[in-house]
Amino acid sequence: MKQCKRCGEQKPLEAFSKRKASKDGLHYYCRECNSPLLKAYSEANRERKAAYDKAYYEANRELALIRARASYEANYAANRPRDRARVRARQAGLATATPMWLSKGHREAIAAIYAEAERLTRETGIPHHVDHIIPLKGKGVCGLHVPWNLRAIPAAENLSKSNRIPDHLIV
Ligand SMILES: [Zn+2]
Q1: Is residue 120 part of a domain?
Q2: What distance in angstroms lies between residue 25's CA and the mean position of ligand 1's atoms?
Q3: Looking at the domain assignment, is residue 15 inside a domain?
Q4: Domains held by the chain: number
Q5: Hey, how many other C-beta atoms are within 10 angstroms of the C-beta on 79?
Q6: Rounded to an integer, what distance in angstroms lies between the CA atom of residue 36 and that of residue 34?
């Protein structure tokens, strides 16, 4: 027999659950006293775990969103010059000025010039555009949308030039 430290009743040893840390290897409280306490403990534990899981999930979700945004922006930045070259080409109706024989290397060279204009804009703070050295709709002559007819120059210069053919190119 053993006395329960909670209800004070004398009960057979079987009424106490095992507890290695105790001298007699049994719990201080009888099973009957202990089980509601265990239940309350496990419930509190479950709630704590749920709160932890929720916080963990939300922190992870936020991190995943930040990662997704960063990856999207990196991807966007990497493709931007090429995209801009394409968009710009469409806007200006360059299809007719872009020769069929333009190679992949030529197209990459064009994209590189647009990238250069963006780099100059970024690094100098002065807006740079891609300029057609011989205007696409010049007087008497039409330039082509080819790498050797393109250059990155300050936007103001591009606009003031309008569609005039540069003097040094007039023969
Ligand atoms: Zn008891």
Answers
A1: yes
A2: 16
A3: no
A4: 1
A5: 12
A6: 6
